[in-house]
Structure formats: structure tokens, C-alpha cells
Specification:
Blueprint lengths: L1 H17 L7 E4 L10 H16 L4 E3 L5 E15 L5 E14 L4 E14 L2 H10 L6 H20 L1 H13 L3 H9 L6 H35 L3 H11 L9 H19 L16 H14 L14
Parallel strand pairs: 1-2, 1-3
Antiparallel strand pairs: 3-4, 4-5
Helix pairs in contact: 1-6, 1-10, 2-3, 5-6, 5-7, 6-7, 6-10, 7-8, 7-9, 7-10, 8-9
């Protein structure tokens, strides 16, 4: 179970990192169910605000199954109902933020921020208070910096273990999972330089394996029925294959045959296109894109351990 969770959070991490050319550290915003009495819409806003806080301080916001999380606890320090027209609700909140390893349950940093919100409803007052969490606040910057340093320490101290996990996945044929593990390593860690060569080799193996599987699937669909519906389904599969894969010449050949058949069927151009190699992209960027789709489809099954954090 632990190994499966590790695969999920590492795969998910590439989504956030892939949007940042520095391959930065990433955090997942997590609002636990234990936060009681906070309205649902305010919780949603709080998740978005946490993402803004970390990205404004040089960390990628991971929306999926991240290992490292930023999570809040909210205490209502004071509440007042103002007898105005309309009635106003005034909330004084102590929002404590925590950064840590949500899998191992290790807390890295915490900081409490006192914020005030006023609104015509309690929900609006909560939302106004949450808005007052400022990313460039000195205490906020220090808090996130402390958490970032601890996360870097994790990668620097566990590099061999991370590489061994990736190798084990590769040996068992789980190439995309292995690729995800390696892609989780931030460029600012010492483990990054030790892993670049292996990552490139994994990327090539992963897209070759993916190409073979998708091409076989496409050929089976097209062989069974060569109507427009089958053409569209086959093209959808073929158009997802990376152009650097070693079977891409066969992909192009099949695609050309289908394209010709479509013109016979409907006497007009087809909207589907194969991927074209972008020479401006590094293999890191390409690897992120290959794994991004997989990460988005992973189920949110990580159960975070924040016991003792608050």
C-alpha cells in the first residue's frame, strides 16, 4: 500500500512541476475534514488561496496527490454580530498554516496568522478574512522558506532510496511510474544532477512502450471496422503518441491510410493531426507532458497523516 501511494504522489507531482521550467519543489493544498464550521465555499476559497501563497513564493502548487502538503487549521478568536442594516458578521480568525510530509506525518514548519473578515453572512466574513492572507507578508515568506528547505533536505537525504524505487518500478515494467518518481526530484536538490541521465533513458523507454501499446490498440480498432467512428477513435489514440517513439513511422503509416479512407467516406479534410516534434522543448519538458496526462487520471487515494500537527 505504501508503495502504491508513493507512485501516486510522485506521478501527481510532475503536473505541478511541469508548469514551472525550474522544476521546483511542489506542495499540495489540503484542507482536512477536521476543520469544522467552515462553510464549504470558504473551504474552496481557502484551497485556492493556499495555492496562491506557495506559487507566489517560488513553489509549485500541486493539485493532485502530492506528498508534501500545506494545510490549515482555523480557530475563531472572536465573533461579533453588528446590528447594522444589513446585519454584519465580524470574524477574527487565527489561521495556522502547516507544511510537512503528509505521508510520513512529519511536520516541517508552522505559522499563525490573525486575520479579520466582515460580511453580511458568516460565509462572506470567512471569505474576507481568508483574502487577507498575503503571500508577501514577511512571516508568510519565512514560513514557506522553512518548509521549502526541509523538503529539499528530504530529496538530498533520500536520493539513493528514490533512485532505487524508480529502478524497481522499471524492472517490473512500470516505466511511467518510474518516470514519475524521477520527475518528482526538484532541480534545486543535489539529487537532481545525479538523476538526469537516468531520467532521459526512462523517458525514451516509456514513450517506446506507450507507442507499442497504443499502436496495437489502434490497429485492432481499425481492423475491426473501417467506418468514420472507428477512424475517429483510432486517430484519437494515434494523435496521443509521442513523435520521438521508435514506432512512430508505423504510426504515421497507419494514420495516412485512415486519413485517405476518411476522405473517401466524407469527401472533406479530417480534423485529427499527429503530434509534431517541437525542437524547442527539452526532453524534460517532453517527459513532463507525457506523464502529465497520466497523473491527472490518477485517483485521489492518498490518506494524509497530520496527526499531532494541531
Amino acid at each position: 500500500m505504501k508503495k502504491a501511494l508513493a507512485i501516486l504522489f510522485c506521478l501527481a507531482s510532475i503536473v505541478a512541476i511541469g508548469q514551472n521550467k525550474d522544476y521546483a519543489i511542489n506542495l499540495g493544498a489540503y484542507v482536512p475534514d477536521q476543520i469544522e464550521n467552515v462553510p464549504a465555499s470558504a473551504k474552496k476559497m481557502l484551497i485556492n488561496k493556499l495555492g496562491q501563497l506557495v506559487t507566489a513564493n517560488g513553489i509549485s502548487n500541486n493539485q493532485y496527490n502530492a506528498r508534501f502538503i500545506i494545510t490549515p487549521n482555523i480557530v475563531v478568536a472572536a465573533k461579533e454580530i453588528m446590528p447594522t442594516a444589513p446585519v454584519k458578521v465580524v470574524l477574527n480568525l487565527d489561521i495556522t498554516l502547516y507544511i510537512g510530509d503528509g505521508i510520513s506525518g512529519t511536520l516541517y514548519a508552522s505559522e499563525t496568522f490573525n486575520v479579520k473578515g466582515v460580511g453580511t453572512t458568516e460565509t462572506k466574513a470567512y471569505m474576507q478574512a481568508i483574502k487577507r492572507l498575503k503571500p508577501k507578508n514577511e512571516a508568510m515568506q519565512g514560513f514557506i522558506s522553512r518548509g521549502k528547505d526541509k523538503i529539499l533536505d528530504y530529496y538530498n537525504s533520500n536520493c539513493s532510496q528514490i533512485q532505487k524505487e524508480a529502478q524497481s518500478l522499471e524492472n517490473s515494467g512500470q516505466l511511467e511510474d518510474a518516470l514519475g518518481v524521477m520527475l518528482s526530484i526538484p532541480s534545486s536538490s543535489t539529487c537532481y544532477d545525479k538523476s538526469k541521465t537516468k531520467l532521459k533513458a526512462l523517458f525514451i523507454k516509456a514513450i517506446n512502450q506507450d507507442c507499442k501499446l497504443r499502436l496495437n490498440e489502434a490497429q485492432a480498432i481499425w481492423s475491426a471496422n473501417q467506418d468514420i467512428e472507428a477512424a475517429n477513435e483510432t486517430a484519437r489514440i494515434l494523435s496521443s503518441i509521442h513523435p520521438e517513439a521508435n514506432c512512430f513511422s508505423s504510426v504515421k503509416s497507419l494514420f495516412s491510410k485512415i486519413e485517405a479512407r476518411v476522405k473517401d467516406l466524407q469527401d472533406r479534410d479530417w480534423n485529427y493531426k499527429l503530434k509534431v516534434l517541437d525542437a524547442t522543448k527539452s526532453y524534460y519538458d517532453s517527459a513532463f507532458e507525457v506523464s502529465m496526462a497520466r497523473a491527472k487520471n490518477q485517483p485521489s487515494t492518498v490518506m494524509y497523516n497530520v496527526r499531532g500537527w494541531y
